[in-house]
User: Which sequence fits this backbone?
């Protein structure tokens, strides 16, 4: 039996004798099936052609991503805390070098993921580091490869570790999650839930590739969910998408700008 990865979104599916007939993540309106059709790769082929790169942004914050670009091409973050390390979001490549580097940084106590587009190989990561995997229960229907390490949470926030809080903000997905870290004035790891834009503000969409907006009500709800938290840095899902000063003001301005263009 062979494990297959979707080459459009990076999701790992249960092992089988042949690739799955379709990828429900890509068939959802928030993603897409490529014009050439659904594509698949195996773990062996993927590992032979790709590797992971790392960048340190802060003394306790590292980002990692795969080169050459694969699937959606998001980055993940490893956050080091005195109470255990957290992997924020996930990528599909988990090779021996990555395992050695993560273990050298102290391993993982928890994995938390912003939304189903970044579930990728979350079960393999959780198994490799004996880490608990935290997902919002509103997105449970998108899980295609369960693991006994899975822990679903509900509500508007969840205290993951001291100083580390998961914040639910609907829009892109009902279970859309951001991570707030209270160090040095506060930091927001936003995934795609609020997308950091090239002008270092933010926006919110139901579908980014298919340009489906969300309603003014949803934007106001997102703003309300982050308002209680102090933060001056925002790290988005993609390389180069970060706001390193006045982050909360930038989020506020970005959401206000959105509302000006979707309201009469």
Assistant:
């Amino acid at each position: 039996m062979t494990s297959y990865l979707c080459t459009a979104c990076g999701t790992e599916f249960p092992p089988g004798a042949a690739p799955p007939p379709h990828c429900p993540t890509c068939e959802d309106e928030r993603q897409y099936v490529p014009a050439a059709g659904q594509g698949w790769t195996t773990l062996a082929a993927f590992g032979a052609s790709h590797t992971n790169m790392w960048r340190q942004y802060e003394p306790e914050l590292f980002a990692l991503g795969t080169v050459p670009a694969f699937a959606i091409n998001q980055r993940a973050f490893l956050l080091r805390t005195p109470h255990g390390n957290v992997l924020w979001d996930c990528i599909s490549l988990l090779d021996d070098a990555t395992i050695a580097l993560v273990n050298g940084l102290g391993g993982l106590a928890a994995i938390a993921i912003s939304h189903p587009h970044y579930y990728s190989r979350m079960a393999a990561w959780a198994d490799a580091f004996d880490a608990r995997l935290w997902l919002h229960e509103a997105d449970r229907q998108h899980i295609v490869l369960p693991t006994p390490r899975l822990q679903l949470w509900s509500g508007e926030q969840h205290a993951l570790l001291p100083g580390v809080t998961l914040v639910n903000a609907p829009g892109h997905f009902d279970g859309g999650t951001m991570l707030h870290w209270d160090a040095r004035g506060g930091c927001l790891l936003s995934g795609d839930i609020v997308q950091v834009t090239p002008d270092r503000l933010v926006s919110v969409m139901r579908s980014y590739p298919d340009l489906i907006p969300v309603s003014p009500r949803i934007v106001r709800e997102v703003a309300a969910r982050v308002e209680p938290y102090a933060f001056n840095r925002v790290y988005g899902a993609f390389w180069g998408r970060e706001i390193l000063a006045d982050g909360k003001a930038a989020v506020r301005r970005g959401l206000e700008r959105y509302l000006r263009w979707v309201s009469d």
In short: The first strand starts at residue 4 and ends at 6. The CA atoms of residues 189 and 235 lie 5 Å apart. Helices lie at 24-27, 43-49, 96-104, 122-129, 216-226, 247-262. The chain has a mean pLDDT of 97.
